[in-house]
Amino acid sequence: MSAAHLIRLPRSDGSLHAYTMRAAAVWTPPPPGARFNRVAYAAAHVVADPLSTADPWLQPAIDWDATLAYRDYLWSLGLGVAEAMDTAQRGMGLDWPASLELIDRSLTAARATPGAMIACGAGTDHLEPRPATTLADVIAAYELQCEAVESRGGRVILMASRALAACARAPDDYGRVYERILSGLRQPAILHWLGEMFDPALAGYWGHADLDRASEVCLEVIRANAAKIDGIKVSLLDKHREIALRRRLPAGVRMYTGDDFNFAELIAGDAAGYSDALLGIFDPIAPAAAAALAALAAGNPAEFDAILAPTVPLSRHVFAAPTRFYKTGIVFLAWLNGRQSHFVMVGGQQSARSLMHLVELFRLADVAGLLADPAMACSRMQTLLAVHGCDG
């Protein structure tokens, strides 16, 4: 280990300690055209343009070349891309016009990439919830975004709606809205149940604060519209609830895990079934995720478990409360790994996590073998420390 891979990291009391980095893991990418035995989407982040003169709190400025290059990277590993989702800072810096341009550019790139799998988020985020907002307003907003995605040849991920959560007066309101939207789609959609830990404005989704009762409403909606639903992504960070819901889904409707705390065991599954994947954590751990999925497809679950085991503590730290700020860790890891040249985010969200959170994230990524170039990661971490006055 060269001296270049030594770094002095701060403790919360202000002292510094020497940390020796590990050698990077070498992940064997799946061969071109290889198929996994799980459907696997990585919800991908966007790369900001740090030289834009736009006010970062008010107007998203995106480096399109770097953003699309990251999608090419995910596709090269055999992963699908879940586009314009919360990982792309939807509703936290990325507005609908920028989201639509992102969708348009990514769909064009996917068409030029053999085997590229992509699905795109459609919601109601251009509709600001107001006291006078009605279900008709929500339906119109959903229809506008769904039509925008499908008219470009995209598959819809039907995102949870803040406006619907705000104006629904009873669980049946959810049923009416979802039936209307799903009936008008050209191909089956993926539903997205995003828990309030990811977005506090979605508290009480499906008409109930009690998750058992909410799950019943969700299941009723799925059963009533099963022919129009490819699957549902559940992001509640509760593996037992996901498994219980998974076992009750109609035949042909997939469970896409969105549980970034327990994803490895949920994807591995049990005698009664398994979850497919639509995960934000697959963005930063993409090479490990692809290698693990290839091992699982080859009939080697022990290797699958061994590869993903050290990524789970990393993921739990990335998604630690306040969970909605997890995007900062994902972009931070992309910067450490040379996938972008800077640690700047739309909406100025690079400031959403503390330095000590990022220090621990650096260490956990190193332990997981996910810092591809230790010298680069060390140099970039030292730059961040110096900005925070920790360059002693």
Short description:
This protein is of the alpha/beta class and 392 residues long. Helix content is 41%, strand content 12%. It has a single domain (33-322), classed as Aldolase class I (TIM Barrel, Alpha-Beta Barrel), CATH 3.20.20.
Q: What's the CATH architecture name?
A: Alpha-Beta Barrel
SSE succession? EEEHEHEHEHHEHEHEHEHHHHHH
Residue runs with pLDDT of under 50 for 5 or more positions: none
Order of neighbouring strands in the sheet with most strands: 3-4-5-6-7-8-9-10
**Number of extended strands:** 10
Shape: globular
Q: What kind of assembly state do the chains in view correspond to?
A: single chain
The main β sheet shows up as: 8 strands, parallel, barrel
CATH superfamily: Aldolase class I
Average pLDDT for all residues: 96
β-strand amount: 5-15%
Sheet/helix structural class: alpha/beta
**Helix proportion of residues, in percent?**
40-55%
Query: With helices defined by DSSP (H or I, 4 residues minimum), what is the helix count?
Result: 14
CATH first level: which class?
Answer: Alpha Beta
Radius of gyration: 21 Å
In total, the number of domains comes to: 1
The first-to-last residue Cα distance is: 22 Å
CATH fold topology: TIM Barrel
